[in-house]
Design brief:
About 45% of the residues lie in helices and about 5% in strands. The protein contains 7 helices and 2 strands, in the order αααααβααβ. A two-stranded antiparallel ribbon has the order 1-2. The protein is elongated and about 65 Å long.
Length: about 180
């Protein structure tokens, strides 16, 4: 391998790794069991929200003089509301914090694939929409050694374990530098 005299110190002259890829090695990917419990917890929370909204819609229909059966007769309204809640749950929480309730409990977080930086909003939106693809949840088993689902791969994101001992905080969790601090010299 030839060295590049114009590369910054410590940069490799070849390969497909970028200069920030070493930082990605500090944050191990979430295990299969963590991903399973993320999904289980988030599914329970999602169904709890959907049931609460469904009861609220049925009660409000009753208060307006319509029967609950007429509101949910064909299932279209209920399905539309469910899909909207699903999208808002994942997109809203992951865009704001990088975590859903399941990820918060299991100590995991969504980050950009490669450098572990904060995932951009566009990637989070794409990730949330890809969850509607059939068999997305099972795609983690297609290449189990990668621990990536289709919504990870296609949106260039991954889920990392934040509870691994001895790891530094992610870049956007570190406090900002103090511009008024004196130089120790």
């Amino acid at each position: 391998m030839q060295s590049n005299p114009y590369s910054p110190p410590g940069a490799s002259a070849g390969g497909d790794r970028g200069p920030d890829d070493d930082r990605a090695l500090l944050y191990p990917r979430a295990s299969l069991s963590q991903r399973f419990f993320n999904n289980l917890i988030d599914t329970l929370v999602f169904f709890g929200i959907v049931m609460t909204v469904g009861v609220a819609l049925a009660l409000s229909a009753g208060a307006l003089g319509a029967s609950a059966d007429s509101v949910f007769a064909d299932g279209g309204l209920f399905n539309l509301v469910s899909y909207a809640i699903f999208l808002l749950y994942y997109f809203g929480l992951e865009a704001a914090t990088g975590r859903t309730v399941g990820k918060l409990i299991t100590g995991t977080r969504v980050v950009r694939l490669g450098d572990c930086g904060r995932a951009p909003i566009s990637a989070i939106l794409l990730r949330s929409l890809i969850r509607f693809v059939p068999f997305d949840g099972l795609s983690i088993f297609f290449k189990a050694e990668e621990l990536l689902t289709w919504h990870d791969k296609w949106s260039r994101t991954m889920v990392v374990n934040l509870r691994e001992p001895g790891l530094a905080p992610l870049p956007d969790e570190m406090p900002p530098p103090n511009p008024y601090a004196r130089d120790p010299q």
